[in-house]
Amino acid sequence: MDRPGTVAELRASGYRPESVKDEMRRNLIARLRAGQPVFPGILGYDETVVPQIQNAILSRHDMLLLGLRGQAKTRMLRMLTELLDEAIPIIAGSEVNDDPFAPISKQARDRLAAEADRCPIEWIGRARRYQEKLATPDVTIADLIGEIDLIKHAEGQYLSSELTMHFGLVPRTNRGIFCINELPDLSPKIQVGLFNVLEERDVQIRGYPVRLNLDLCMVFSANPEDYTNRGRIVTPLKDRIGSVVRTHYPITREVGIRITDENAWTDRDGGSAVRVPHFMKEILEETVRLARQSTHVNQASGVSVRMSIANYENMISNAERRAILTGESHAVPRISDLAFIAASARGKIELTMSEDDGQEDKVLARLLGEAVKNVFDQHADVGRFRPALEYFEKGGSIEAGDQMPSAGYAERVAEVPGLKKQVMQLAEELTPDLLDAPFRDAALASVTEFVLEALYVHNKVNKNDKAGKKAYRR
């Protein structure tokens, strides 16, 4: 669309300046009335976090999202730009997004005074009105607020002139949203430098009697202070932040599964189709949920949703790799594939015990076993496999493994009295959509391993793990 190109045209258009927080408030109200989501794609926060953020915006507050890692804090802060107008006018060439009707920089004021209504304007979009800074101990006031530019001084500007100033990120985000991630990592003296921005809405550079009346929405993210040992948020700064919103991990297992489904990369192009049964998704999510309750895991650090996503992708990848190596065109993940999620889980849990080599793997193996037990008990009773247990008590065994072709499982199950029937019944309950060709053999192999592993975690059979193969026997 054609937009005004000069101050005169802008005035004739009826444009009225509006603060960024009023703008966000207006657009939020419009979305609420239209029933549109404020954070599309963010799951599990509809009744908890999102209403608090909406209230903060309606109150015209700066806000801090406080929560453990992997709780979508930064993602939501970046999505706040959707509450900004599509474009706003600024004086052409302005470094601090000067309002054509109320410029704050000397450069813009001088230009407006010289050119008056002929002064050209330009329009900037949402992306330019959002700036983000990751807090690190080496961040300086010059980075955020500004500094004297000695090059401008060398070019002939007096040090006493505002024109020698180089603006930092905060002034350059004037009339927009400025975000600082991991706020406690910012040194206390730099946090003090933000006091005026949050309360008086102005900044001073190098002690000059120059005040820039900024129009900003300041947003922050942080982990709880008991985890962020590198620093803390100074109390006066917290006092100036209007709303502190606590985020959280998925409250239910099903919400966690939905988040993983929407964020994991599953659209593979390797030539082998992979379908994941719901009980395998439940096991993966239950493992992460158990990790968030385990005494072996540092709960002040948290267990990120990224662990669920990375584990899910690695499980699919191992099923895909098996299909490629065995020449199968269709694959379904099995329990034996979960042995390979250790690579994606390492580093995503912080242990409370000593950091010995392989200790994370041992903790993860215990969590996986407990997850298999919990999920199996929700779907079946181990007592229904009593005839099969008699086979093991007589010295029988069954081999399983992530590299075994799916068709081979039918032969092994047929050797165990009653097991084939029970596996088939359980498969009809758990994977009815996979029992038709071409996924049938792969689905039955997956359910078979689920049953065998459940018998093992219930201490009904033993398991020998060697060279990638597992032998279940009494």
In short:
The chain is of the alpha/beta class and about 475 residues long.
Plain-language structure description:
- This protein has 474 residues and is α/β, with parallel strands linked by helices.
- It is 41% helix and 14% strand.
- It has a 5-stranded parallel beta sheet. Strands 14-16-15 form a 3-stranded antiparallel beta sheet. A two-stranded antiparallel ribbon has the order 2-3.
- Strand 8 and strand 9 form a beta hairpin.
- Helix 18 packs across helix 20.
Provide the fold topology.
Layout (H helix, E strand, L loop, with lengths): L6 H6 L7 H15 L14 H10 L4 E4 L6 H7 L7 E5 L14 H10 L5 E5 L4 E5 L6 H4 L1 E3 L1 H5 L10 E3 L1 H4 L3 E6 L6 H5 L2 H5 L2 E2 L8 E2 L2 E7 L12 H6 L2 E4 L6 H11 L9 E2 L3 H14 L13 H22 L3 E2 L10 H4 L13 H21 L6 H8 L3 E5 L5 H8 L4 H12 L9 H18 L4 E5 L2 E5 L1
Parallel strand pairs: 1-10, 1-11, 4-7, 7-10, 12-13
Antiparallel strand pairs: 2-3, 5-6, 8-9, 14-16, 15-16
Low-confidence stretches: none
Counting DSSP H or I runs of 4 or more residues, the number of helices is: 20
Shape: elongated
> Could you give the count of β-strands?
16
**Spatial sequence of strands, sheet with the most strands:** 4-7-10-1-11
Fraction of residues in helices?
A: 40-55%
Report the end-to-end length measured between terminal Cα atoms.
Answer: 76 Å
Structural class of the secondary elements?
Answer: alpha/beta
State which percent range the strand residues make up.
5-15%
Largest sheet: 5 strands, parallel
The radius of gyration is: 30 Å
Q: Give the integer mean of the pLDDT values.
A: 90
